[in-house]
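Students often ask why we bother encoding 3D structure as a string. The short answer is that it lets us treat folding as translation between two languages. Here is a chain of 278 residues written in the first language.
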Amino acid sequence: METVSTNAAHGGIQGVYKHASRETGTDMTFSVFVPPHADGAKLPVVWYLSGLTCTHANVTEKGEYRRLCAELGLIFVAPDTSPRGEDVADDVDKAYDFGLGAGFYVDATQQPFARHYRMWSYVTDELPGLIAENFPADSDRQSIMGHSMGGHGALTIGLTFPDRYKAVSAFAPIVAPSQVPWGHKALPGYLGDDKAAWRKHDAVALIEDGARVDALLVDQGEADGFLAEQLKPQLLEAACARAGIDLTLRMQPGYDHSYYFISTFMEDHLRWHARRLG
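And here it is in the second language, the structure alphabet:
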């Protein structure tokens, strides 16, 4: 693992790291904030998954999480959103919503994407192992959150591994990719036409098929330009109501899809996670 950069931040360390990934077959970059802590301490970990077009750096530069993570004693990990490199396949039209920067947190089965686009295994297996080996992380106290496509990833991963992630939350998530244009492009492109495979990467479908967590926190801006066509939080609300999942869905007037929205409510989410992480 190569250290790209580290800086002191709120008494802790903010670092950017690169490693050769066995899952994606490429060099992957991720960011980690480690709060101040006593020697030998093991700290809870919050995973943050970013959205379309993003890298690890978007939340690192704009997320406003360091002060709270230092106060609450939380390690904050931000992976990239897709593999990258000259030999990594991209959308033929270089569109923003598929290919580079748009891995959708799945393990692709379709060519030419199957070789590198293994973001599900990278985020749920390989990178957690690397974090546990190199940082003072308590693997028994993990939680996950994300924005937009990353909110989709956080919800689907949290629902799939409810015993691993003690808290799950999202900002403006894609809750039902099987039912919206972004998903109609990404899911068949990565996973093929078998819609049963899509359901494992669709939060609403997972809940319909029996996946459960105790509680979810979702913030959604009412002025979000993607709200009506791509995000559809009412579908998650209905699924949670039927399943008996305690969903806190907060519609925030005046807020759009940007990091101004995320940074405003990041403190609420981190405190929500900290209470559940212990």
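Translate back mentally: The longest helix spans residues 259-277. Keep this in mind for the problem set.
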